[in-house]
Amino acid sequence: MKSMKMAVVCANGKAGRLIVEKAVERGIEVTAVVREENRSSAQNVIQKDLFSLVPEDLAGFDAVIDAFGAWTPEKLPQHSSSLKHLCDLLSGTWTRLLVVGGAGSLYVTPDHTAQVMDGPGFPEAFVPLAGSMGQALDELRKRGDVRWTYLSPACDFRADGGETGKYLFGGEELFLNEKGESVISYADYASAMIEEAINGSHIRERISVIEA
């Protein structure tokens, strides 16, 4: 059976490195797309800025995982521009695009009129970030030419949390585990992302994942 081929964009980041690690563990041939020297466990490397990628760079992959993140106010618009660029590169191809998303845009009402970021308890400092990621998702929904999947983490997304190996997939609405929590570690999120890349069929859908 042919080995799956995957590219991880921004593979040097915390989430990116863990996603690469989990993919390699599953026997996937991984190419890291990085601006600087590769610090992940990927077998292959494309050393290029995301915005300098051309269609030929991403040709032939079964899946491309977008682990891009921007945190400073002047770079927040790049959530939209970077995702648009990747979509343009993959337009009309069979390659799946899986996006490391945010939790702020998850819905908290059945009619989908209110989101997590709208709540009074949502940290004010994170509103701009959640808003920019939510806008990027809204723009992604309009792309009928790309086989995308957007994976939102739990509200409490723990960079240094332990790996449990137990997680639950959900849909567009915020949901809680049996302890009443919305939490997941980066490590468990990375495992869930790879599971979705291998087995999932959520084409042009946003899904979510929390620790069981």
Characterise this structure.
This is NAD(P)-binding domain-containing protein. InterPro entries: NAD(P)-bd_dom, NAD(P)-bd_dom_sf, Polyketide_Oxido-like. Residues 11-195 form the NAD(P)-binding domain. One of its GO terms (molecular function) is oxidoreductase activity, acting on the CH-NH group of donors, NAD or NADP as acceptor. This protein is α/β, with parallel strands linked by helices and 212 residues long. The chain has one domain (5-211): Rossmann fold. The chain is built from four helices and ten strands, in the order βαβββαβαββββαβ. Strand 5, helix 3 (127-140) and strand 6 (147-152) form a beta-alpha-beta unit. Helix 1 crosses helix 4 (186-199) and helix 2 packs parallel to helix 3 (127-140). The chain starts with a strand and ends with a strand. The mean pLDDT is 97.
What about the largest sheet?
Answer: 8 strands, mixed
CATH architecture label: 3-Layer(aba) Sandwich
Strand order of the largest sheet: 3-2-1-4-5-6-10-8
**Number of helical segments?**
4
Class by alpha and beta content: alpha/beta
Can you tell me the residue ranges where pLDDT is under 50 for at least 5 consecutive residues? none
The shape, in one word, is globular
Mean pLDDT: 97
What fold name stands as the CATH topology?
Rossmann fold
Compute the CA-based radius of gyration.
Answer: 16 Å
The CATH class turns out to be Alpha Beta
- The count of DSSP E runs of length 2 or more, i.e. the number of strands, is 10
Protein name: NAD(P)-binding domain-containing protein
Domain NAD(P)-binding: 11-195
Pfam families: NAD_binding_10
Organism: Hungatella effluvii
